[in-house]
Amino acid sequence: NESSSPRPKAPSLAARIKRQEAPRRMGEEEETETGKKMNNDGANAAPLLTPHKMGRFHLSHRVVLAPLTRQRSYGNVPQPHAILYYQQRATRGGLLIAEATGVSDTAQGYRDTPGIWTKEQVESWKPIVDGVHAKGGIFFCQIWHVGRVSNSTFQPNGQAPVSSTDKPVNSVRVDKFTPPRRLETDEIPLVINDFRVAARNAIEAGFDGVEIHGAHGYLIDQFLKDQVNDRTDKYGGSLENRCRFALEIVEALVDEIGADKVGIRLSPFANYSGAADSNPEALGMYMAHALNKFGVLYCHVVEPRMVKHGGKFETPYSLGPVRDAFKGTLIVAGNYNRDDGNNAISSGYADLIAYGRLFLSNPDLPRRFEIDASLNKYNSDTFYIPDPIIGYTDYPFLSSDV
Ligand SMILES: Cc1cc2nc3c(=O)[nH]c(=O)nc-3n(C[C@H](O)[C@H](O)[C@H](O)COP(=O)(O)O)c2cc1C
C-alpha cells in the first residue's frame, strides 16, 4: 500500500525494481549484464535499488540505515520525537538499524542513550517501532554494552565500569573514562543473560530482530581484541577464547529469539578506544566461520578503511575474504557514497550497504540514490545535541517529494 509512503507522488519503487534483476555474486555470469544495464538504464537500474531476500525479510532495496547514536533519549528512555526521526527514514521494505541501545544499567557510557532493560524503556520503544512498521520498514535494535568506555557517573552507585580487563582506556582526557573492573569469570554469564533479556525485550517492543553491537571498542570488542583482552581464563588468550564471549551471546540470542532475527556488527580492523587486534584478518575470518554454525541472519562489518572514527584511509585490507566465508547476508559500512555502494553491490562484494552520516542528513536517501539527486550535507555539530528537532528531524526531503 503506497498510500503510507513518504513519497506519494513518486513512482513506485517496487514497480521500478521489479523490472530489474538482482545482482549476482562476483564471478557469476550475469555480473557484466548488470553492469551494462546500469549504464544503459541509468539510475533506474542502480544496484542499490534492487531487492534482496534476507532470511524471511524481503528487502526492496539495499540502502540500510546504519545504527546512529543521537543522545536524545532523556534519562535512557526513548522519546516520542524518535517516532518522526525513524519514520522519516523508513521505506517499504527498507532495513533500519536503531541506535545503540543499552542492555543493562552498567551498559551505559554516554548521556541520554536509550536502553531496553526496563519496562518503561520497552513501552517507550513500542510507538517508535510501530511508526517504522506503519511505513513498511524493517527495524532491528542494536543492543549494546559499552564496557570500559564509560565513567563511574554513568554507573549504578558510582561504581567502576566493567570490562574484559582492568586496563583503562588510554585517553588524553583522563577524567573521561574511569578505570574498569575486570569481570570475574563467573559474572560473565550474567552479562550474557543481560543481552538475552534485552533481545527478548526488543522482540516484545515489536522490533523485527536485534543487532549485537560487537564493534567499535565496546564491551564485546574488548573481549575480541588482543590489545585489550589480557585475561587468562577461558575468555582470554587464544583467538577461540577471545571470541567465546561474543559467540556465547550469539548462542543465547539464537536460543532466545531465533537465528533468523539475529545479526551482529563487527569492526575487526578498527582501533576505537584502544581496541585493536594484531591479526584482524584472522579475527574476522574466525567470526565469519563461527557465525555460520549458528546460522545468524546477517553480519554487519565496518570497512577496514574506517580505522579512526569518521575517517577514510587507504588500506590494503578488504572484506572480500569475510564475504566469501560468511553464508548469511553481509552488510558493509564505512564512508560509502552512491557510486561505491552501487559498485559493491554489482560486484558481489556485499549484499547491503549501511549508510550513517548520509542517511542522518538525508531522510529520503534511498529515493535520492534512486534518481541520483544531490544530497544534504550533514552537520556534525548537531549529531549529539539533545534538541528533539534541530539536526534530527529537520533535514529536508527532496522538494518535489514533499
Ligand atoms: C552520529 C553517529 C553516531 C553513531 N552511532 C553508532 C552506534 O550507535 N552504533 C554503531 O555501531 N555505530 C555508530 N556509528 C557509526 C555508524 O554506524 C557508521 O558505521 C559510520 O558513521 C560510518 O558510516 P558513514 O561513513 O556512512 O557515516 C555512529 C556514527 C555517527 C556519525
UniProtKB/TrEMBL annotation:
NADH:flavin oxidoreductase/NADH oxidase N-terminal domain boundaries: 48-371
GO biological process: jasmonic acid biosynthetic process; oxylipin biosynthetic process
Region of interest (Disordered), residue spans: 1-49
Biased composition (Basic and acidic residues): 18-39
Pfam families xrefs: Oxidored_FMN (PF00724)
Gene3D superfamilies cross-referenced by the UniProt entry: Aldolase class I
Keyword NADP: yes
The entry's keywords: Fatty acid biosynthesis, Fatty acid metabolism, Flavoprotein, FMN, Lipid biosynthesis, Lipid metabolism, NADP, Oxidoreductase, Oxylipin biosynthesis
One MF annotation (Gene Ontology) recorded for this entry: oxidoreductase activity
Family statement: Belongs to the NADH:flavin oxidoreductase/NADH oxidase family.
Name used for this protein in its record: NADH:flavin oxidoreductase/NADH oxidase N-terminal domain-containing protein
Organism for this UniProt entry: Setaria italica (Foxtail millet)
High-level lineage: Eukaryota, Viridiplantae, Streptophyta, Embryophyta, Tracheophyta
